[in-house]
Each structure stands twice: as structure tokens, then as C-alpha cells.
Specification:
alpha/beta
Amino acid sequence: MVEMPHNNLPRPEDDSLEPSLDFLQSAREANESGDFLLSMYLYLAAFEKSSKEGENPAEDAVYGLKQAWALACANKERSMAEYIFELMEPYLTSEETTLCANKLQKLAFEKLEEFGLSREELEDMAQMLVEDASLDASPIVRIDRVVKRAARDGAPDGKVDSSDAVASDEAAAGQSPLAERGASDEEITLGNVHAAFVGDGEALDYDSVVGYDSVIEVMHDFGIGMAEDQSFGQLVEMLNLRHGLKQRPALDSFLFRAQAREDANRFMLATLGELGVPAVHMRMEENFQGMPILCISTRTADLGPSQSLKDVFDNGGVLVLEDLDLWESPVSDYPEDGANFFMMQLTRGAREAVNLVRYAVEKNDVYVIATASLDGMIDDFFLDMLEPLSLIDIDFPNEEERARLWMDIAKNHPSIRSINKKDLVKYSANLARYDIYMATREAIEEAYKLGLITRKYQPVTRDNLFDKLAAYHPLESEEYSELEDEVIRDFQSDLDHIDDILNR
């Protein structure tokens, strides 16, 4: 039988007064019989039932929750242990909170050791990234959460996360952005710095993304996406010879901006696919306590067990700063000539992150790419750090790009092929690529659910898709007004033929 080791745990006394008695009793019986996982879920059920029936759960239910925690840890159920810890934390002492945090850290290290990373190497990496000194009584290295993250597709299902984002590669090449797929990325939070080891995945490139033709042409001017172009290679050789250089000068940092940040992030992932070099991703998140954490992630294939993050860039690479307009400056005010003073104010983890960005910007064979929304404001601290910087603004898709986008959607989703493509191109003007994919996905899912109800195939209807597109247009826009008129005309047309339908 497994129990959480603590001397001051309350023991259930008068179970007859507790509505969740059945769950608690069943949980204890399952524990005694050796069915630990069933016992854990029953203890959780008892806590949830008690919580719903009053403002505060009964002491017996809290005791059961702690038993569920002990069972999750004993069976190495890390995600469940993290979930239970969030429920349990309000009822823990500071000493118990520290013990639980240490246990989560141990479980995370044990899991990462399965990837070939030794405990000593992980602790060295953690020590490099975490704060020099803790701000409270918690341990210097604290695991705030350990999760398996499912990668989101770059268009309708979201960017990743590379990454989601994070830093995971997005939808498979040639795969419709409306399709879902998963990945098994291991992430850990170290103090206020988040490190992730991202599994291998198929990457996008310029051939597999649709609706970015004009932006791709701009990137071609910088030489990105021209690796297979022999004439461009000959041009570079001639320029190197005439200027007496061994290789092309280092490029500026790039900042991809779009109305929908998902468009910028998807194009960033396609650019990574074109470059085909190791990448390190940084992004800002909040932990479950609402505190900002810096997330640093890379693919496991790009980071060996004995390497630091800088070693990823030994033979060139890419540093990605995702959603830079959502980042907060590490300090609010600092003297213009006080760089050393500024660096002293940062925690060790923040200093390492700043140094990594500066190292990448200064290294000739490392690309630095940032993404942001056009409506977001980026702190001058980050803009100065990225200089020299080239802004790449990704506009809404033009008419030709929308036509290719709708052809690509129809190729992968036959149920919308009956809708006039000229109308779709017209009424999707001034919409982000992400919004077009999302509107289409919503219409497809609605038709699919209707098919389940009626027990027969239901195609996506014109008025349904138009209604979804209208929801993404501003109410005062010309496109919204025209779509509204189209939906009304279709409805009136249906009313005119109602007698014919009823007489069938």
C-alpha cells in the first residue's frame, strides 16, 4: 500500500458525514488490493466531489488528494503528478511545497535520462540557466511543470509551437494545414527559464506553404530559398571573387510581422525548412502561477548530451525569437552607458539568454529570426539587441495568393469543391491566411457533425462557409456587408423553393 509520507496528515474519522465516502472507501480498498492507478483516480474523484459541494473540500478529501499524489509519483505518472500538485498546492505548507517540487524535478530528470542525458549533464544545464539565488525558500532549480506538448499545425491549428512556438517543426510538407498531427516534445521549466528537448518532425519549406508567394520573392532577394538556383550560386561566386571575400557577408536579423501572428510564425517555420540548419527557439510564456518564464527549446537531434546551447551553432544555425511583441524587457530602466550595470541586475538565466542572442547576432553563419504581430509593440531593448535588422511585413494574401490557397484547400478537402472559387477568393479579401483556414475548418466540422446526425454525407454549403468567413471580417468592412447580403440572398432563395422541398 502506498501513502504520502507526512506525519501531520489528517486521518478520516467520521466518514458518515462526508458525501464522498464511497469514493474514499473504494480508493482505500483499491490501494490495499494493489490496484494503485484505480486508487489514484478514486481519490481524485473524492476530492472533486467534495470540492463541488462546498467552498472548501473536506479534510478527508484533501488527505485523499495527497494519497493520489503519492500514488502518481510512485507509478511515475508525471503529467498526473503535475495536475494533482496544482490541485494540492493551496493546502500545502511551504515545506511540503518544496518537497513536492523536488519530487517533480526528480521525475523530470528520470524521464530526460531516457533520452541519453545523464543526471550530471542535466543539472549542469539547469545550473547554467536558473537564477543565481532563489527569491524564496524554494530550491534553486524548481520544476514548475513537465508536460508532453502536442505540436500545433502552422496554419489553422496554430503555429507551433515551434516552434508551439515552441520549438517544434510544423505541419508535414505537402500536408493540409487543416489536418491535425501530434508530436512528443519533452519540456521542463527550470526556475524562470524553460528548456525543451523537441523531438524530430517534418518541417515546412517554401514549396509546401501556400499563399506566401510575394514574401518568398522578398526572401529570395536575400538569398534564402535559392540553394537550388545555379544562376544565383554563380552570382555569389562572382561577387565573392570581385570583392575579395571568401563567403557572403552576414545577413541582417529578420523580423517577420503579420496581422495574424500565426501567419508570421508559419512563414518562419517554412524559412527554417529552407535553411535546413539546427535551430534554437525562444519564447515567453506564463507558468500556472502567472509568472513569466523564458522558454528555450531545440530538437534533440541538434543538441548532443554534452553540449551547451551555443554549441548548436558550431556549424551555423538559426536563433528564433517567437512573438517578440509579447516579451517583457528584463529591466525597465537602465543607464544608456551602463551595460555592465544592466547585466549585473539580471539573473544568471536571463544573462545567459541575452548573451546567447548577442552571440547569434554577431556570428556570421547564424541566422536570427524574430516574429511578431503588426499590431504589437516591441520593446526597444530587443530591437537594439537585434541590430542590424530587416523588417519583413507579411501582408494579407493578394488575389492570386488567395486563389492558390483555395485550390490547395479544395485539393485536400473535397466537400468544399462545389462552392464557386471566384466567390471564395472575392470574399476572403483582407483576411489572414490563418483566418481563412480557421473559417474553412469550422465549416467543415459543422458539416461533418450534421452528417453524423443525419447519418449521411453533408457537403459544406455556400451559406455556411460564407457565414464562417464573415465572422473573421470586421463588422464595418465592405467584405462583411457583402457576405451578409449573400447569406440573406441564399436564405431567401431557399424560402422561394420551400414548397418544392416540402412536396418531394
